[in-house]
Amino acid sequence: MNTNSIKSFAREARLLLLDGVFQRLKYWSFQENGTNIENLNTIQGGYIFRGQPFTDVNVPTKWNKLKLKLKNKQSFKDVREEASYTWFNRLMAIKILETNGYISKQLAYTEGSRTPLIVQNAKRGEHNITNNADKELLIEYLKEDKDEEAFALLVTNLCHTNTVLHDIFGRIDDYTEILFPQNSLKIDGLLDLINSDAISETDYKEVELIGWLYQFYISDKKDEVFKGFKKNIKARAEDIPAATQIFTPKWIVKYMVENTVGKIYLDYEPDSDLRDQMKYLVENENDNVIASATKQSLIKDLTQLTLIDPAAGSGHILVTGFDLYMKMYREAGYTANQAVQNILRHNLYGLDIDDRAMQLSRFAVLLKAAQYDASILEDPILPHIYSFPEDTLGNLLQQKTK
Protein backbone atom coordinates (compact mmCIF):
# COMPACT_ATOMS: atom_id res chain seq x y z
CA MET A 1 0.00 0.00 0.00
CA ASN A 2 1.39 3.39 -1.04
CA THR A 3 0.95 5.23 2.25
CA ASN A 4 2.72 8.39 1.06
CA SER A 5 0.27 8.81 -1.80
CA ILE A 6 -2.70 8.03 0.46
CA LYS A 7 -1.46 10.56 3.01
CA SER A 8 -1.16 13.30 0.39
CA PHE A 9 -4.63 12.43 -0.92
CA ALA A 10 -6.28 12.55 2.52
CA ARG A 11 -4.67 15.83 3.51
CA GLU A 12 -5.54 17.49 0.19
CA ALA A 13 -9.10 16.18 0.41
CA ARG A 14 -9.46 17.62 3.92
CA LEU A 15 -8.40 21.08 2.76
CA LEU A 16 -10.84 20.96 -0.17
CA LEU A 17 -13.64 19.77 2.09
CA LEU A 18 -12.99 22.35 4.80
CA ASP A 19 -13.00 25.10 2.18
CA GLY A 20 -16.11 23.72 0.47
CA VAL A 21 -18.05 23.52 3.75
CA PHE A 22 -16.78 26.98 4.74
CA GLN A 23 -18.09 28.40 1.47
CA ARG A 24 -21.42 26.66 2.07
CA LEU A 25 -21.66 28.14 5.58
CA LYS A 26 -20.95 31.57 4.12
CA TYR A 27 -23.63 31.03 1.48
CA TRP A 28 -26.12 30.31 4.26
CA SER A 29 -25.02 33.66 5.79
CA PHE A 30 -23.17 32.25 8.83
CA GLN A 31 -20.07 34.05 10.06
CA GLU A 32 -17.02 32.58 11.77
CA ASN A 33 -18.19 33.92 15.12
CA GLY A 34 -21.38 31.84 14.82
CA THR A 35 -23.77 34.69 13.94
CA ASN A 36 -25.83 35.00 10.77
CA ILE A 37 -26.36 38.12 8.66
CA GLU A 38 -29.36 36.95 6.62
CA ASN A 39 -32.63 35.36 7.68
CA LEU A 40 -34.38 32.52 5.92
CA ASN A 41 -38.15 32.82 5.69
CA THR A 42 -40.42 29.83 5.15
CA ILE A 43 -43.21 30.18 2.58
CA GLN A 44 -45.68 27.71 1.14
CA GLY A 45 -43.80 25.35 -1.16
CA GLY A 46 -40.32 26.49 -0.12
CA TYR A 47 -38.52 29.48 1.33
CA ILE A 48 -37.15 32.94 0.59
CA PHE A 49 -33.46 33.61 1.13
CA ARG A 50 -31.42 36.64 0.10
CA GLY A 51 -34.58 37.97 -1.53
CA GLN A 52 -34.95 34.96 -3.84
CA PRO A 53 -37.67 32.26 -3.72
CA PHE A 54 -36.62 28.59 -3.63
CA THR A 55 -38.72 25.43 -3.94
CA ASP A 56 -36.85 23.06 -1.60
CA VAL A 57 -39.30 22.54 1.27
CA ASN A 58 -36.72 20.65 3.35
CA VAL A 59 -34.24 23.50 3.76
CA PRO A 60 -35.96 25.68 6.41
CA THR A 61 -35.91 22.98 9.11
CA LYS A 62 -32.26 22.13 8.38
CA TRP A 63 -31.22 25.80 8.28
CA ASN A 64 -32.88 26.50 11.64
CA LYS A 65 -31.15 23.48 13.21
CA LEU A 66 -27.84 24.76 11.87
CA LYS A 67 -28.56 28.21 13.33
CA LEU A 68 -29.18 26.66 16.75
CA LYS A 69 -25.96 24.66 16.51
CA LEU A 70 -23.82 27.71 15.75
CA LYS A 71 -23.29 29.73 18.93
CA ASN A 72 -19.73 31.01 18.78
CA LYS A 73 -16.39 30.75 16.99
CA GLN A 74 -15.62 27.30 18.43
CA SER A 75 -18.99 25.85 17.44
CA PHE A 76 -18.51 27.22 13.91
CA LYS A 77 -15.15 25.45 13.73
CA ASP A 78 -16.60 22.22 15.13
CA VAL A 79 -19.52 22.19 12.68
CA ARG A 80 -17.15 22.85 9.80
CA GLU A 81 -14.91 19.93 10.85
CA GLU A 82 -17.87 17.64 11.47
CA ALA A 83 -19.54 18.31 8.12
CA SER A 84 -16.23 18.03 6.26
CA TYR A 85 -15.43 14.67 7.75
CA THR A 86 -19.02 13.41 7.37
CA TRP A 87 -18.86 13.96 3.62
CA PHE A 88 -15.31 12.65 3.30
CA ASN A 89 -16.39 9.53 5.17
CA ARG A 90 -19.36 8.85 2.94
CA LEU A 91 -17.84 9.84 -0.39
CA MET A 92 -14.84 7.58 0.20
CA ALA A 93 -17.12 4.73 1.25
CA ILE A 94 -19.06 5.14 -2.00
CA LYS A 95 -15.82 5.20 -3.99
CA ILE A 96 -14.54 2.06 -2.25
CA LEU A 97 -17.83 0.21 -2.83
CA GLU A 98 -18.00 1.15 -6.51
CA THR A 99 -14.33 0.41 -7.20
CA ASN A 100 -14.73 -3.06 -5.72
CA GLY A 101 -17.88 -3.70 -7.75
CA TYR A 102 -20.23 -3.86 -4.76
CA ILE A 103 -22.41 -1.05 -6.18
CA SER A 104 -22.73 0.42 -9.67
CA LYS A 105 -20.49 3.35 -10.60
CA GLN A 106 -21.69 6.57 -9.01
CA LEU A 107 -18.79 9.01 -8.60
CA ALA A 108 -16.72 7.83 -11.55
CA TYR A 109 -16.36 9.76 -14.78
CA THR A 110 -16.82 8.32 -18.26
CA GLU A 111 -14.23 8.95 -20.95
CA GLY A 112 -14.40 12.52 -22.19
CA SER A 113 -16.71 13.72 -19.42
CA ARG A 114 -16.17 15.24 -15.99
CA THR A 115 -19.81 14.76 -14.99
CA PRO A 116 -20.13 11.96 -12.41
CA LEU A 117 -22.14 8.96 -13.54
CA ILE A 118 -24.75 9.47 -10.83
CA VAL A 119 -25.63 12.81 -12.49
CA GLN A 120 -25.31 11.45 -16.05
CA ASN A 121 -27.75 8.66 -15.20
CA ALA A 122 -30.19 11.09 -13.58
CA LYS A 123 -30.24 13.16 -16.78
CA ARG A 124 -31.49 10.00 -18.52
CA GLY A 125 -34.15 9.54 -15.86
CA GLU A 126 -32.18 6.76 -14.12
CA HIS A 127 -32.21 7.42 -10.36
CA ASN A 128 -33.88 6.00 -7.27
CA ILE A 129 -35.31 9.17 -5.72
CA THR A 130 -38.89 8.36 -4.75
CA ASN A 131 -39.86 11.42 -2.72
CA ASN A 132 -42.01 13.62 -4.98
CA ALA A 133 -40.61 16.90 -3.65
CA ASP A 134 -37.03 15.72 -4.18
CA LYS A 135 -37.91 14.41 -7.65
CA GLU A 136 -39.27 17.80 -8.67
CA LEU A 137 -36.22 19.50 -7.20
CA LEU A 138 -33.89 17.18 -9.12
CA ILE A 139 -35.73 17.89 -12.39
CA GLU A 140 -35.45 21.60 -11.70
CA TYR A 141 -31.69 21.35 -11.06
CA LEU A 142 -31.11 19.29 -14.21
CA LYS A 143 -33.17 21.61 -16.42
CA GLU A 144 -31.16 24.58 -15.18
CA ASP A 145 -27.83 22.74 -15.56
CA LYS A 146 -27.17 22.97 -11.83
CA ASP A 147 -25.06 19.82 -11.81
CA GLU A 148 -23.49 20.51 -8.43
CA GLU A 149 -26.86 20.91 -6.70
CA ALA A 150 -28.13 17.77 -8.45
CA PHE A 151 -24.99 15.89 -7.39
CA ALA A 152 -25.45 16.86 -3.73
CA LEU A 153 -29.11 15.80 -3.79
CA LEU A 154 -28.35 12.47 -5.47
CA VAL A 155 -25.44 11.61 -3.16
CA THR A 156 -27.50 12.49 -0.07
CA ASN A 157 -30.29 10.24 -1.33
CA LEU A 158 -27.80 7.42 -1.98
CA CYS A 159 -26.54 7.70 1.61
CA HIS A 160 -30.11 7.32 2.85
CA THR A 161 -31.19 4.47 0.55
CA ASN A 162 -28.11 2.26 0.21
CA THR A 163 -28.33 -0.40 2.93
CA VAL A 164 -24.61 -0.52 3.75
CA LEU A 165 -24.13 3.25 3.82
CA HIS A 166 -27.24 3.78 5.90
CA ASP A 167 -26.66 0.92 8.35
CA ILE A 168 -22.97 1.65 8.89
CA PHE A 169 -22.87 5.44 8.92
CA GLY A 170 -26.41 6.14 10.08
CA ARG A 171 -28.60 9.05 9.09
CA ILE A 172 -26.83 12.29 8.26
CA ASP A 173 -27.68 15.10 10.70
CA ASP A 174 -30.23 17.34 9.04
CA TYR A 175 -28.11 20.47 8.97
CA THR A 176 -25.15 18.56 7.54
CA GLU A 177 -27.17 17.85 4.40
CA ILE A 178 -27.20 21.55 3.50
CA LEU A 179 -23.44 21.73 4.10
CA PHE A 180 -22.48 19.50 1.18
CA PRO A 181 -19.09 20.97 0.17
CA GLN A 182 -19.39 23.72 -2.40
CA ASN A 183 -17.37 23.57 -5.65
CA SER A 184 -17.05 19.76 -5.45
CA LEU A 185 -17.36 19.48 -9.26
CA LYS A 186 -15.05 22.32 -10.22
CA ILE A 187 -11.82 21.63 -12.12
CA ASP A 188 -9.17 20.34 -9.69
CA GLY A 189 -11.89 20.11 -7.06
CA LEU A 190 -12.87 17.32 -4.72
CA LEU A 191 -14.35 14.92 -7.26
CA ASP A 192 -11.40 15.36 -9.63
CA LEU A 193 -9.15 14.35 -6.72
CA ILE A 194 -11.32 11.32 -5.85
CA ASN A 195 -11.31 10.18 -9.48
CA SER A 196 -7.58 10.76 -9.92
CA ASP A 197 -4.95 8.02 -9.70
CA ALA A 198 -3.77 9.26 -6.29
CA ILE A 199 -5.08 5.99 -4.86
CA SER A 200 -4.43 2.93 -7.01
CA GLU A 201 -6.96 0.26 -7.94
CA THR A 202 -4.90 -2.20 -5.89
CA ASP A 203 -5.07 -0.03 -2.77
CA TYR A 204 -8.84 0.28 -3.17
CA LYS A 205 -9.00 -3.51 -2.78
CA GLU A 206 -7.37 -3.28 0.67
CA VAL A 207 -9.95 -3.11 3.45
CA GLU A 208 -7.39 -1.29 5.62
CA LEU A 209 -7.54 1.66 3.20
CA ILE A 210 -10.40 3.27 5.12
CA GLY A 211 -8.27 3.17 8.28
CA TRP A 212 -5.25 4.71 6.62
CA LEU A 213 -7.42 7.45 5.12
CA TYR A 214 -8.87 8.19 8.55
CA GLN A 215 -5.47 8.42 10.24
CA PHE A 216 -4.04 10.68 7.55
CA TYR A 217 -7.19 12.80 7.31
CA ILE A 218 -6.95 13.71 10.99
CA SER A 219 -3.15 14.05 11.06
CA ASP A 220 -3.23 17.85 10.74
CA LYS A 221 -5.85 18.02 13.47
CA LYS A 222 -3.61 15.81 15.60
CA ASP A 223 -0.72 18.22 15.09
CA GLU A 224 -2.94 21.10 16.22
CA VAL A 225 -3.91 19.26 19.42
CA PHE A 226 -0.28 18.46 20.27
CA LYS A 227 0.74 22.06 19.69
CA GLY A 228 -1.92 22.96 22.24
CA PHE A 229 -0.42 20.49 24.73
CA LYS A 230 2.91 22.31 24.47
CA LYS A 231 1.11 25.53 25.41
CA ASN A 232 -0.60 23.80 28.36
CA ILE A 233 -3.94 23.88 26.55
CA LYS A 234 -6.11 21.00 27.70
CA ALA A 235 -7.66 18.93 24.90
CA ARG A 236 -11.43 18.97 24.64
CA ALA A 237 -13.39 15.72 24.44
CA GLU A 238 -13.94 16.43 20.73
CA ASP A 239 -10.16 16.53 20.17
CA ILE A 240 -9.20 13.29 21.93
CA PRO A 241 -9.84 10.94 18.96
CA ALA A 242 -7.55 12.95 16.68
CA ALA A 243 -4.80 12.88 19.31
CA THR A 244 -4.98 9.16 20.07
CA GLN A 245 -5.67 7.35 16.79
CA ILE A 246 -2.61 5.39 15.69
CA PHE A 247 -2.55 2.68 13.01
CA THR A 248 -0.95 -0.42 14.56
CA PRO A 249 1.63 -2.08 12.24
CA LYS A 250 0.36 -5.26 10.61
CA TRP A 251 3.00 -7.59 12.07
CA ILE A 252 2.15 -6.48 15.62
CA VAL A 253 -1.55 -7.04 14.95
CA LYS A 254 -0.86 -10.54 13.62
CA TYR A 255 1.35 -11.29 16.62
CA MET A 256 -1.44 -10.29 19.02
CA VAL A 257 -4.18 -12.19 17.19
CA GLU A 258 -2.17 -15.38 16.64
CA ASN A 259 -1.01 -15.53 20.27
CA THR A 260 -4.51 -15.06 21.70
CA VAL A 261 -7.25 -16.36 19.42
CA GLY A 262 -4.77 -18.58 17.57
CA LYS A 263 -3.43 -20.25 20.72
CA ILE A 264 -6.89 -20.91 22.15
CA TYR A 265 -7.94 -22.48 18.85
CA LEU A 266 -4.90 -24.78 18.83
CA ASP A 267 -5.85 -25.97 22.31
CA TYR A 268 -9.27 -26.76 20.83
CA GLU A 269 -7.83 -28.32 17.64
CA PRO A 270 -4.25 -29.39 18.50
CA ASP A 271 -3.78 -31.19 15.17
CA SER A 272 -4.82 -28.17 13.10
CA ASP A 273 -2.84 -27.36 9.96
CA LEU A 274 -3.18 -23.68 10.88
CA ARG A 275 -0.31 -24.01 13.34
CA ASP A 276 2.21 -23.86 10.49
CA GLN A 277 0.45 -20.86 8.91
CA MET A 278 0.74 -18.64 12.00
CA LYS A 279 4.07 -16.93 11.38
CA TYR A 280 4.13 -15.00 14.65
CA LEU A 281 2.87 -17.74 16.96
CA VAL A 282 5.11 -18.20 20.01
CA GLU A 283 4.88 -21.68 21.52
CA ASN A 284 6.41 -23.33 24.54
CA GLU A 285 8.04 -26.70 24.02
CA ASN A 286 5.38 -28.43 26.14
CA ASP A 287 2.31 -26.78 24.56
CA ASN A 288 1.50 -29.67 22.24
CA VAL A 289 2.22 -32.31 24.87
CA ILE A 290 0.00 -30.65 27.46
CA ALA A 291 -2.82 -30.06 25.00
CA SER A 292 -2.75 -33.66 23.77
CA ALA A 293 -2.50 -35.16 27.24
CA THR A 294 -5.25 -33.21 28.98
CA LYS A 295 -7.63 -32.64 26.03
CA GLN A 296 -8.80 -29.49 27.78
CA SER A 297 -9.78 -26.34 25.97
CA LEU A 298 -11.29 -23.00 26.93
CA ILE A 299 -13.97 -23.47 24.28
CA LYS A 300 -16.30 -26.26 23.20
CA ASP A 301 -17.40 -24.67 19.95
CA LEU A 302 -15.95 -22.11 17.52
CA THR A 303 -18.76 -19.68 18.27
CA GLN A 304 -17.40 -19.42 21.83
CA LEU A 305 -14.00 -18.18 20.65
CA THR A 306 -14.48 -14.42 20.89
CA LEU A 307 -12.13 -11.56 20.16
CA ILE A 308 -12.77 -8.09 21.57
CA ASP A 309 -10.74 -5.00 20.80
CA PRO A 310 -11.55 -2.36 23.48
CA ALA A 311 -9.87 0.38 21.43
CA ALA A 312 -10.95 -0.72 17.97
CA GLY A 313 -9.95 2.38 15.99
CA SER A 314 -10.60 1.63 12.34
CA GLY A 315 -10.80 -2.12 12.92
CA HIS A 316 -7.32 -3.32 11.93
CA ILE A 317 -7.15 -5.99 14.65
CA LEU A 318 -10.71 -7.16 14.00
CA VAL A 319 -10.07 -7.45 10.25
CA THR A 320 -6.95 -9.53 10.87
CA GLY A 321 -8.92 -11.65 13.33
CA PHE A 322 -11.61 -12.17 10.69
CA ASP A 323 -9.09 -13.77 8.31
CA LEU A 324 -7.92 -16.19 10.99
CA TYR A 325 -11.46 -17.09 12.03
CA MET A 326 -12.30 -17.74 8.40
CA LYS A 327 -9.50 -20.30 8.16
CA MET A 328 -10.76 -21.97 11.35
CA TYR A 329 -14.34 -22.27 10.12
CA ARG A 330 -13.28 -23.50 6.69
CA GLU A 331 -11.04 -26.09 8.31
CA ALA A 332 -14.08 -27.21 10.33
CA GLY A 333 -16.08 -27.69 7.12
CA TYR A 334 -18.27 -24.58 7.10
CA THR A 335 -19.21 -22.91 3.81
CA ALA A 336 -17.98 -19.37 3.19
CA ASN A 337 -21.47 -17.97 3.80
CA GLN A 338 -21.91 -19.91 7.06
CA ALA A 339 -18.47 -18.85 8.27
CA VAL A 340 -19.02 -15.17 7.49
CA GLN A 341 -22.37 -15.12 9.28
CA ASN A 342 -20.98 -16.90 12.35
CA ILE A 343 -17.99 -14.58 12.62
CA LEU A 344 -20.16 -11.46 12.45
CA ARG A 345 -22.74 -12.84 14.88
CA HIS A 346 -20.55 -14.59 17.43
CA ASN A 347 -16.82 -13.96 17.25
CA LEU A 348 -15.84 -10.32 16.77
CA TYR A 349 -16.47 -7.41 19.16
CA GLY A 350 -15.09 -3.89 19.37
CA LEU A 351 -15.37 -0.64 21.33
CA ASP A 352 -14.09 2.87 20.73
CA ILE A 353 -14.60 6.33 22.23
CA ASP A 354 -15.01 7.83 18.75
CA ASP A 355 -18.24 7.44 16.77
CA ARG A 356 -16.38 7.93 13.50
CA ALA A 357 -13.85 5.21 14.30
CA MET A 358 -16.69 2.86 15.21
CA GLN A 359 -18.32 3.48 11.83
CA LEU A 360 -15.11 2.92 9.89
CA SER A 361 -14.34 -0.21 11.89
CA ARG A 362 -17.76 -1.65 11.06
CA PHE A 363 -17.25 -0.73 7.42
CA ALA A 364 -13.80 -2.37 7.28
CA VAL A 365 -15.10 -5.59 8.87
CA LEU A 366 -18.01 -5.76 6.41
CA LEU A 367 -15.63 -5.18 3.50
CA LYS A 368 -13.51 -8.05 4.77
CA ALA A 369 -16.61 -10.23 5.04
CA ALA A 370 -17.56 -9.32 1.46
CA GLN A 371 -14.20 -10.56 0.20
CA TYR A 372 -15.36 -14.05 1.19
CA ASP A 373 -19.08 -13.66 0.45
CA ALA A 374 -20.23 -10.51 -1.37
CA SER A 375 -23.88 -11.36 -0.73
CA ILE A 376 -23.43 -10.25 2.89
CA LEU A 377 -23.68 -6.63 1.69
CA GLU A 378 -27.19 -7.20 0.36
CA ASP A 379 -28.58 -7.68 3.85
CA PRO A 380 -25.63 -6.88 6.11
CA ILE A 381 -25.23 -8.22 9.62
CA LEU A 382 -24.06 -5.19 11.58
CA PRO A 383 -20.76 -6.05 13.33
CA HIS A 384 -20.73 -5.92 17.15
CA ILE A 385 -18.65 -2.74 17.26
CA TYR A 386 -19.89 0.14 19.40
CA SER A 387 -18.87 3.65 20.34
CA PHE A 388 -18.26 4.39 24.00
CA PRO A 389 -18.14 8.20 24.34
CA GLU A 390 -16.07 9.77 27.10
CA ASP A 391 -19.06 10.73 29.25
CA THR A 392 -20.80 7.34 29.02
CA LEU A 393 -19.04 5.80 32.02
CA GLY A 394 -19.60 8.93 34.10
CA ASN A 395 -23.30 8.90 33.28
CA LEU A 396 -23.57 5.21 34.21
CA LEU A 397 -21.84 5.81 37.54
CA GLN A 398 -24.11 8.76 38.31
CA GLN A 399 -27.18 6.65 37.57
CA LYS A 400 -25.86 3.88 39.81
CA THR A 401 -25.29 6.20 42.75
CA LYS A 402 -28.76 7.81 42.57
From TrEMBL:
The keyword Transferase applies. GO terms for molecular function: site-specific DNA-methyltransferase (adenine-specific) activity. The keyword Transmembrane helix does not apply. One of its GO terms (biological process) is methylation. Keywords: Methyltransferase, Transferase. It is an enzyme of class 2 (transferase). InterPro entries: MmeI_Mtase (IPR046816), N4_N6_ade-DNA_methylase (IPR050953), SAM-dependent_MTases_sf (IPR029063). Gene3D superfamilies: Vaccinia Virus protein VP39 (3.40.50.150). It catalyses: a 2'-deoxyadenosine in DNA + S-adenosyl-L-methionine = an N(6)-methyl-2'-deoxyadenosine in DNA + S-adenosyl-L-homocysteine + H(+). Its EC number is 2.1.1.72. Residues 295-376 form the MmeI-like DNA-methyltransferase domain. This is site-specific DNA-methyltransferase (adenine-specific). It comes from Maribacter arcticus.
